[in-house]
């Protein structure tokens, strides 16, 4: 494979795939580890947060609200907890924005 072909394939693979899956469905399918070590929590968070961020459109307030449609408060708190464990400031900001919008 030539370098341009490889670059095109690599760019395609690295882009998140829009599967029609919603954040609600994704979070409902996740089982957070219980009674686990810090390493296991970190590993789970490192998988959870980037996948969740790929399903969130935070370009406008409306799109942000649509991204979190159906996501209940305990799931928001779960996202925030794992964002703190991983140290992902963007997810923390997004969850805080959603919680602020919902409190209005």
Percentage of residues assigned to helices = 55-70%
N/C terminus separation: 55 Å
Largest sheet: none
Number of helices: 6
* Whole-number mean pLDDT: 85
How much beta, percentage-wise?
under 5%
Instruction: Report Rg.
Output: 16 Å
Structural class: mainly alpha
Low-confidence stretches: none
List SSEs in N-to-C order. HHHHHH
Query: How many E strands?
Result: 0
* Overall 3D form: globular
Key traits:
6 helices, single chain
List the helices and strands and how they pair.
Blueprint: H1 3-14, H2 23-28, H3 38-54, H4 61-67, H5 73-86, H6 89-103
Helix pairs in contact: 3-5, 5-6
Describe this structure in words.
- Helices cover 68% and strands 0% of the residues.
- The chain is globular.
- The mean pLDDT is 85.
- The protein starts with a helix and ends with a helix.
- With 104 residues, it is mainly α.
- It contains six helices and no strands.
Brief sketch in words of this structure:
This protein is mostly helical. It has helices at residues 3-14, 23-28, 38-54, 61-67, 73-86, 89-103.
């Amino acid at each position: 494979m030539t370098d341009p072909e490889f670059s095109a394939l690599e760019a395609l693979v690295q882009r998140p795939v829009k599967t029609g899956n919603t954040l609600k469905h994704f979070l409902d399918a996740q089982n957070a580890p219980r009674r686990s070590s810090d390493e296991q929590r970190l590993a789970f968070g490192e998988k959870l947060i980037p996948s969740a961020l790929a399903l969130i459109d935070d370009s406008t307030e409306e799109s942000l609200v649509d991204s979190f449609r159906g996501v209940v408060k305990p799931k928001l708190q779960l996202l925030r907890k794992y964002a703190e464990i991983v140290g992902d400031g963007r997810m923390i900001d997004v969850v805080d924005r959603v919680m602020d919008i919902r409190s209005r």
